[in-house]
């Protein structure tokens, strides 16, 4: 079995299934677990991923006006790796290489590789995708065991938060300039973790968000999880929020309940570590109930009023 995974979440799924040795290629964004970094890289961005949030957003929009996705596939390398299975996605043209581009890359091959495309919109879809990958790799029993273990961890957290009468209102931001709320599986995770999600709909794509709507909702908690950013990079964008009229008047700001998370490693990846993302939210939203040890690595309290260096 030879597998090429073209998105980080599917790479993590393969490894969680105990099939890391089957991987022969990865995307440029696949970086967990560390062992996969030695694999050949089959994709690259079509834009410069550095700069301000607004600059990155503008470049992505420009590329998407003319292309299927914002990434390119190294067709020659992909072919040379002779994969039996290629894992890709059809959820988001910004998240990873698109299904259409992968199909275009392999359509002329005489030997057919099986292309498995994942499209997780909700938490249940993520668990279903884990099982689909397991079946494609010939280890369905491992998929069933992994899903059962992950669902058990989710249920344990949900059972404890269900006893809470007091649950804070929460705004999760997936992009800062321009503002975007978090959708898909994030609203579910917030509710499971003991919060009341204000923006974004479970199972729907992340929506753009007007500042006045956020200001009017006045959330008790604001959680920053920009797509592709770690906590250090997210901290650099704090001055953008602090410059918004009325930012300092928000309850979350006054009460010191603005949090940075590692969106890149956790919340933006619909794989096994979404359960760890739930644990992070539970620590933030119900700190007297949960302590999984993620503070400092998966999340931290935002240091407001300090210009990023």
Please name the defining characteristics of this protein:
309 residues; alpha/beta; Rossmann fold; 2 domains; six-stranded mixed beta sheet; four-stranded parallel beta sheet; 15% strand
Explain how this protein is built.
The chain has 309 residues and is of the alpha/beta class. The protein folds into two domains: 3-119, Nitrogenase molybdenum iron protein domain (Rossmann fold); 166-301, Rossmann fold (3-Layer(aba) Sandwich). The protein contains twelve helices and twelve strands. It has helices at 8-16, 53-64, 75-80, 99-106, 123-136, 140-161, 186-192, 211-217, 231-235, 238-242, 251-254, 274-285; strands at 3-5, 23-26, 43-45, 71-73, 85-89, 114-118, 169-175, 180-181, 196-197, 221-224, 258-261, 299-301. Helix 6 (140-161) packs parallel to helix 12. The longest helix is centred in the middle third of the chain and has 22 residues, at 140-161.
CATH topology of the largest domain: Rossmann fold
Which shape, going by the Cα principal axes?
globular
Main β-sheet description: 6 strands, mixed
| Proportion of residues in β-strands | 5-15%
Order of helices and strands: EHEEHEHEHEHHEEHEHEHHHEHE
Termini distance?
Answer: 47 Å
Q: Mind telling me the CATH superfamily name of the largest domain?
A: Nitrogenase molybdenum iron protein domain
Q: Stretches where pLDDT falls below 50 for ≥5 residues? A: none
Mean pLDDT: 91
- Helix fraction, binned, reads 25-40%
Structural class: alpha/beta
* CATH class division of the largest domain: Alpha Beta
**Any idea what the radius of gyration is?**
20 Å
- Tell me what the CATH architecture of the largest domain is: 3-Layer(aba) Sandwich
Number of domains: 2
Instruction: Please provide the count of β strands.
Output: 12
What's the number of helices? 12
